[in-house]
Specification:
The protein is an alpha/beta fold and 259 residues long. The chain is built from twelve helices and ten strands. The protein binds acetoacetyl-coenzyme A.
Length: 259
């Protein structure tokens, strides 16, 4: 395992790796170094067949308060243009294994954008979500204007992006940002249990399922259905599909190999 300073990594024996944002002194602000470590950790997990699902989390009281404003203050337009951050975000965006975000407390700006990169979000009842960039005279810079509207619709997305107002966990659940709410002390455990349930499925089927759901943002319904059909047929050529169906018929648990 690499020697990280801004994140910590922990893996279990059920295919789940927990990546924890760990800059409590700065409310887990996403400085460039943290994003580089996150991208590196995901790249390592991508190459490790023992990892089936990732959980990204902060602490029981805080997910992340956004981009590091102190670092950002040092960057002019040219420096921002040359910055490595978009490359790190691209690596995070292109990670193909399932990601669950376990979110407690403040989940703001780039922190909220990171949580929206996850495939499933479990929120603690103390979670607060917001895009407060407008208060700084800027706008979301890691997909907030695009992802939020696709999740919650125009009116709420506009309200959050234009006013900087936060929403709570209940509102996030109602708006489709969170899949589930739990007590803050249970958020991580709940996310890990879900991740373990996911990690034991066929990695090929998981990868295609994630790809197809994300593709629905980009394609017409016809194109999406066509891609789904082709992937469905492709899976018939895998051992995992035979194993899954055999296990069901033989009334036993499947043992997927990723073949
Ligand atoms: N960047 C850098 N440092 C931050 C930070 C951030 N985003 N958020 C908090 N901190 C630091 C504070 O400066 C403070 O450090 P010091 O003790 O050294 O002064 C420490 O964390 C604790 O913060 P507060 O004292 O402000 O804590 P609070 O509990 O009173 O308030 C808060 C918490 C509401 C989250 C408040 O800190 C806040 O509003 N933070 C900024 C949120 C924000 O604007 N996020 C958007 C950033 S821009 C962005 O993310 C762009 C993008 O899309 C890529």
């Amino acid at each position: 395992m690499r020697d990280y300073s801004d994140i910590t990594i922990e893996s279990d024996d059920k295919g789940v790796r927990v990546i924890r944002l760990n800059r409590p002194e700065a409310h887990n602000a996403l400085r460039t170094h943290l994003l580089a470590e996150l991208a590196d950790a995901l790249s390592a997990a991508q190459q490790n067949d023992a990892i089936g699902c990732i959980v990204i989390t902060g602490s029981e009281t805080l997910f992340a308060a956004g981009a590091d404003i102190k670092e950002m203050a040092q960057l002019d337009a040219v420096a921002l243009w040359k910055d490595q951050r978009p490359l790190h975000w691209k690596s995070i965006r292109e990670f193909t294994k399932p990601v669950v975000a376990a979110v407690n407390g403040y989940c703001l700006g780039g922190g909220f954008e990171l949580a929206m990169h996850a495939d499933i979000l479990i929120a603690g009842s103390n979670a607060q979500f917001g895009q407060p960039e407008i208060n700084l005279g800027i706008i979301p810079g890691a997909g907030g204007t695009q992802r939020l509207v696709r999740t919650v619709g125009k009116s709420l997305a506009m309200k959050m992006v234009l006013s900087g107002e936060f929403i709570n966990a209940q509102q996030a659940l109602a708006a489709g940002i969170a899949a589930e709410i739990t007590q803050p002390e249970n958020t991580l455990r709940c996310a890990i249990q879900l991740a373990q349930k996911i990690a034991c499925k066929s990695p090929i089927a998981l990868r295609l399922a994630k790809e197809l759901v994300l593709k629905s943002y980009e394609t017409t319904l016809e194109q999406g259905l066509d891609a789904e059909r082709k992937s469905f047929v492709f899976l018939a050529a895998t051992d995992d599909r035979n194993e899954g169906i055999s296990a069901f018929l033989e009334k036993r648990e499947p043992r997927f190999t990723g073949q």
